[in-house]
Amino acid sequence: MFRFEYSLHLYAFLLIPILLLVFGFMWMQRKKALQNFGNNNLIQQLMPEASRYKHTLKFVLLIVAIALLIIGWANPQWGSKKEKVKVKSSDVIIALDLSNSMLAQDMKPNRLETARKFTLQLIDGLQGERIGLIIFAGSAYLQMPLTADYSAAKLFVKSASPSLIPIQGTAINEAIDLAERSFQEDSRNRKALILITDGENHEEGMMERAKTANDNGLLIFTVGVGTEQGASIPIYANGRSTFKTDESGKTVYSHLDETMLQELAQAGRGQYYNITANEKIITAVRDRIDQLEKQEMEQQSFSEYESYFQLFIGLALLLLIIEFIMSYRRSKWLEGKDLFS
Questions:
Q1: SS (H, E, C) the chain
Q2: Cα(108)–Cα(112) distance, integer angstroms
Q3: The 218-224 sheet, strands edge to edge
Q4: Considering only CA atoms, which of 90, 111, 94 is closest in space to residue 102?
Q5: How confident is the model over 28-70, as pLDDT tens digits?
């Protein structure tokens, strides 16, 4: 298995386009200065040994060397020893509301972005458990079945948007149904559902559904996103932004329904949290899930990784040495040749 030990260091690649812009600017300035100095043919006669391409070649060598140094700095690694390990875990499904009301901006920049950031932190806090992901609006979809692949879970969360679900609404009952079907039959006392939503629900029988699910061993937590004051719901179409209106043309406002979410969590014998509590929620949920029964599972993982940063740094240093000793004079073996023709 390949990985970068320090993947954040790869952000240093952002320096390369800046260097390209600087080189382009300096090249134009040099060209302009030569034009102001005199006739181009005359200048070539005055500097017969000057190379036409080595400025560019030396810069390319420098850029490649910097890229290799950045890769070496991030320390590319390859898993060299794979072994089976036994782990104990509970099963947790996160259900993320993707209804249009989650685009309301009573939380900055909007409810959905706030929910996404929280969900990413929640996944980090649930390391060691098997995690599944459900997205829902007017319908519910299993985006990722139960797994220990936390990187994949984060990738799905980052790409979540209302456009993924054609039917709008807030189908919490359907999300609970789908969650129950997604757990294994023998996971009765080690499963939990975390609903992240603004609570704008128009379904009936939700509390009874939550109680039934809890009787089957499902612990239900709810996380409220938004404010009681609420906000209008933006609608984006054809590059324009408007706000959702009702049949009479009045702007529709979406409000966080904390009372309903509290009752829903109580029916599922879990707990309600307002998303503004952030890290306190993750700690509290972690403590409750730790009290659930754990299933012992066997999985394969890499226990040892070999580092290969030396290869990239060594090659980068070699290129830097070549760039340093390379002169701006013409090469005799390339004399009379145009590399860019």
A1: CEEECCHHHHHHHHHHHHHHHHHHHHHHHHHHHHHHHCCHHHHHHHCCCECCCHHHHHHHHHHHHHHHHHHHHHCEEEEEEEEEEEEEECEEEEEEECCHHHHCCCCCCCHHHHHHHHHHHHHHHCCCCEEEEEEECCCEEEEEEEECCHHHHHHHHHCCCHHHCCCCCCCHHHHHHHHHHHCCCCCCCCEEEEEEECCCCCCCCHHHHHHHHHHCCEEEEEEECCCCCCEECEEEECCEEEECECCCCCECEECCCHHHHHHHHHHCCCCEEEHHHCHHHHHHHHHHHHCCCCEEEEEEEEEEEEECHHHHHHHHHHHHHHHHHCCCECCHHHCCCCCCC
A2: 9
A3: 140-147, 130-136, 91-97, 191-197, 218-224, 272-274
A4: 111
A5: 887 787 677 666 666 566 556 666 677 888 899 999 999 999 9
Q: Which two tokens stand for residue 137?
A: 């609006």
- Residue 321 tokens read as 């040495």
pLDDT tens digits, one per residue of 226-258: 999 999 999 887 778 889 888 888 998 999 999
Beta strands across the sheet bearing 295-307: 2-4, 76-89, 295-307
